Amino acid sequence: MKLLLRSDVNGVGKKGDVVEVADGFGRNYLLPKGFAVLATRGGEAQAASMRRSRDQRDAADRSAASDIAAKLVPAVIAVSARAKAEGDLFGSVSVNEVVAAVAAQTGIELDRHSIHIDEAIKTVGTHSVSARLHPEVQFQITVEVSPA
């Protein structure tokens, strides 16, 4: 059964794709839930147009993410936090603090969901934070924590 997907379906395809699925899967799941419609010639042409625009948008997003990564990889982001004399912090540095520091020092606004702190930053010093701005663009940001 040939169907045009109206939304992303894991293991099947993305919105706008024309896919071939088993008759029962299409008839009993995809069609009743509104995830797909029967593929027609006009629908396939529309899907091809949607796919082209999605690919162009994805390429532009990937390019913008690569440009941001090129600016942030060599930069060292300075964050100040209250610390004990031994160098341990009172609490930890959060993702929101890293995002705010990046915005203040570089002018680049990042989404807090694109930043991931692997291990909690609880000491003064240099730490590495991972960022994923696009599924194909992942990089490390260097964060320098100093006592306030």
TrEMBL record:
A Pfam family the protein falls into: Ribosomal_L9_N
Ribosomal protein L9 domain segment(s): 13-40
PROSITE patterns: RIBOSOMAL_L9
Keyword terms, alphabetized: Ribonucleoprotein, Ribosomal protein, RNA-binding, rRNA-binding
Sample GO molecular function, one term: rRNA binding
GO biological process, one term: translation
Signal peptide per UniProt: none
InterPro entries xref list: Ribosomal_bL9, Ribosomal_bL9/RNase_H1_N, Ribosomal_bL9_bac/chp, Ribosomal_bL9_C, Ribosomal_bL9_C_sf, Ribosomal_bL9_N, Ribosomal_bL9_N_sf
GO-annotated cellular components: ribonucleoprotein complex; ribosome
SUPFAM superfamilies on file: L9 N-domain-like, Ribosomal protein L9 C-domain
Family in the record: Belongs to the bacterial ribosomal protein bL9 family.
Protein name as catalogued: 50S ribosomal protein L9
